[in-house]
Fold:
Amino acid sequence: MYKYIDVENGIKRFDNETAYLKVVQAFYKHTPTLLDELRTLSKDGTGVSLADYGIIVHGIKGSSKGIVASEAALKAEEMEKAAKGGDFEYVIAQNSSFIALVESLMQEIGELLQKAGTGSKEKGQAATPDPALLAELCEAAKQFVPTQMEKIIEKLESYNYDTGNDLVVWLRNQFDNLEYDAIQEKLKS
Structure:
């Protein structure tokens, strides 16, 4: 039994343990980068802005709900509301405790994934994400074909890139939050 993640209800939600663990693994893989961004929150433009902070915590809220991590989802929602309301003082005062909560969740997820034996595989290296795969992903988003989108994103995630890692993380986050229109818009430009 875990404190920060409801594995039993997560498996019920996905109707399949393997599918649920894939989504949990994606959360585990991509959330540390988002937390690093949240740590740079600043008023002076040297780090993440309050508006961007709101966007990032919105993503964490959605993906936390998706994996049935209710406490993290509720706290993310609270932080998002404060950020969108322009309450910089509240966000800065609560940021460390929010990050600590998500890190506790991440620790539990690490234990869960280790028990499930879903360790990460060695990644290849590439200069940038494959433009043909990005075009395929754009088309799959346009046609709303999530199974194809998942396969393409997994292919993209199988590499570390000299430039473009942020895009792949962003694409995964948007996909996990069902933001297919945002994926399509980004890849068109």
User: Anything to note?
Assistant: The longest strand covers residues 124-126. The chain has a mean pLDDT of 90. The two ends are 45 Å apart (CA to CA). Residues 1 and 131 are 43 Å apart (CA to CA).
